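Page 37, continued from 36.
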């Protein structure tokens, strides 16, 4: 891991990320004050299953794979995609590992720093993040339901 920048200011390209696009300029500036830009080498572990940390990531470039019990379960490769977001909802160990598939750059924030912000700055950020994460989780649940239906059909066909 290589930290590229810790003093991040407003950038039009960052504001175009689906989740961050709903932030006002002032709220985005407050949020960016606790972020840093980090680069990961191909194959480098970003987060490890069953470990606890408070980092949440927005993909700026590259691709990451998500692993659960040594099984690859997802590939994330769209600029602005969010991952390791569950720490904002529940303070538990990571449910999966994340590794860089290639040189990858992320906008990273530590949820502890968010908690330490004054409520007047923190609360608008959390409200937006919670709403956007809810949408993301709802989509993932729909996708998992579709996969479950396909698997059940395949299982019935094999009987």
């Amino acid at each position: 891991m290589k930290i590229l920048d810790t003093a991040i200011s407003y950038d039009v390209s960052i504001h175009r990320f689906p989740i961050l696009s709903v932030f006002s300029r002032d709220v985005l500036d407050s949020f960016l004050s606790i972020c840093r830009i980090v680069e990961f080498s191909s194959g480098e572990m970003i987060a490890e299953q069953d470990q606890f940390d408070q980092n949440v990531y927005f993909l700026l470039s590259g691709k990451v794979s998500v692993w659960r019990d040594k099984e690859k379960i997802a590939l994330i490769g769209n600029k602005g995609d969010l991952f390791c977001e569950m720490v904002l909802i529940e303070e538990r160990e990571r449910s999966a590992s994340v590794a860089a598939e290639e040189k990858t750059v992320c906008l990273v924030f530590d949820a502890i720093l968010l908690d330490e912000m004054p409520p007047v700055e923190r609360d608008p950020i959390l409200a937006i993040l919670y709403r956007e994460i809810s949408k993301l989780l709802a989509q993932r649940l729909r996708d998992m339901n579709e996969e479950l239906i396909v698997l059940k059909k395949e299982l019935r066909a094999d009987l």
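The chain has one domain: 2-158. Flag for discussion at group meeting. The first strand starts at residue 2 and ends at 5.
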